[in-house]
Amino acid sequence: MDVINHSFYKKISVFLVFLLTLVTTNAQNKELNLENVKKSALEYSHNIKNGKLRAEKAEVARQEAFSQYFPEVEATGFALYGFDDLVPPIPEALPNGIDNIYSIGATATQAIYAGGKIRLANQLAQVQLDSREIGMEESIDSVILTAETKFWQLINIQEQQKAIQASKVYLNNLLKQQEDLLDAGLIAKNQLLQVKVEKSGLLLRENELSNQRKIALLDLALYAGISYDTSMVATKSVKTEIASPELKYENPELGLQSNNMYRLLEKQVQAAQLQVKNEKADLLPQFAVGLNASKFDSFNNDFGIDVQPIAFGTVTIPISAWWGGEKKQIRQSKIEVEIAENKLKDGKDQLTVGIMKSWYDLLNAYKQIQYAKDKVLYGTENLKTQKDNYDSGLNNLTDLLNAQQSKEEAEAELANAFANYKQKEALYRYRTNQLEIPIIEE
């Protein structure tokens, strides 16, 4: 009997260990860390998928433009059959007449000079491909920035919930103390009600934060393509010490050669300049040579004509283009170049201002953290002092509740300052092309 019981308890123990392991694994699976969120967002983003498709399309267009360097080859053929003779019989020459004829041929044409249009078409296709690839890089950076911003917003709410929970524990203990004092006849009932009112306000704030967290979590889950579960928790402690941006980063780099937005504007100027050259090519003569081989006969071999190869050359001079619409099109293209150059200059100024603004915003966000830490330190010490004074009868309940609320607000402000710093840091990295892109295994 003892053996049976021992075996039974052993099985129960193994089952409980398995169950605990399963629960722990599920809990771990519900944790959200920033690196995994960014990877998931990159894999899920429709903008990035479309960017890859646009780049693929541009590569096909480049290959199409390159194929223009090769000869154009085409084959033709036709046949006729008449129910009556197409050519009536001719004594001695065509005694049977002809009721069918056919022709087959092939032509190869090679452009020798087309005003540079073939070369320009290839250059334009390459610029288009480069632009699409830069645009895809920009989409990746944008997705990372948005994912980080949403992640830190969720962290902010979670940390504020922790401050609420700490206040809730404190008020519960205070409420218990007030009930004991009321039972002992040492305080009036209104002091107990005052604590209950304060706790009701706290519960209201707790409910509001809970709803805000659900919305923030849903927003992040939808953006990153993660299955939504209200039990998921973003994991990142705000207690991490942050180094000063002036120590972590060098002075803001205002050189924009590696900035994707600036590079896109440069490509627009380059494309506009090539388009002008392409329009000018329409005013130049074009030369081509070719070879044609054809055969004309009937199925009865009445003509007996062999394949006839013919070499030819063509020259085209667009004379009317010098005063026609082509000339006006060149002027329009030149205007587009000026517009693109103005956009580049304006974009450069805006990007430079944006970088400097992000830098000063980052410095200010760092100072806000230091200020919030001082407020938390003061709030903690002040609450302790007010509690000691209240217990000693040196101040009233209102002062104690005000001190407790001030401490809660200071902790919420610290959480908000930390999240704000992380968001400002992500924006600064985005504008200076320093975002950390996670590696995704194919």
Description:
By secondary structure, the protein is an alpha+beta fold. The protein folds into two domains: 33-70 and 114-283 and 318-431, Outer membrane efflux proteins (OEP) (Up-down Bundle); 73-112 and 287-316. It has helices at 2-29, 34-44, 46-66, 117-183, 189-224, 245-248, 260-281, 325-391, 397-431, and strands at 31-32, 72-81, 100-113, 233-234, 286-297, 308-316. It has a four-stranded antiparallel β-sheet with strand order 2-3-5-6, with no helix packed on it. Strands 1-4 form a two-stranded parallel ribbon. Helix 4 (117-183) runs antiparallel to helix 5, helix 4 packs antiparallel against helix 7 (260-281) and helix 8 runs antiparallel to helix 9. The protein starts with a helix and ends in an 11-residue tail after the last helix. The relative contact order is 0.12.
Short description:
The protein is of the alpha+beta class. The protein folds into 2 domains: 33-70 and 114-283 and 318-431, Outer membrane efflux proteins (OEP); 73-112 and 287-316.
Question: What brief labels describe this structure?
Answer:
two-stranded parallel sheet, alpha+beta, 442 residues, 2 domains, 4-stranded antiparallel β-sheet
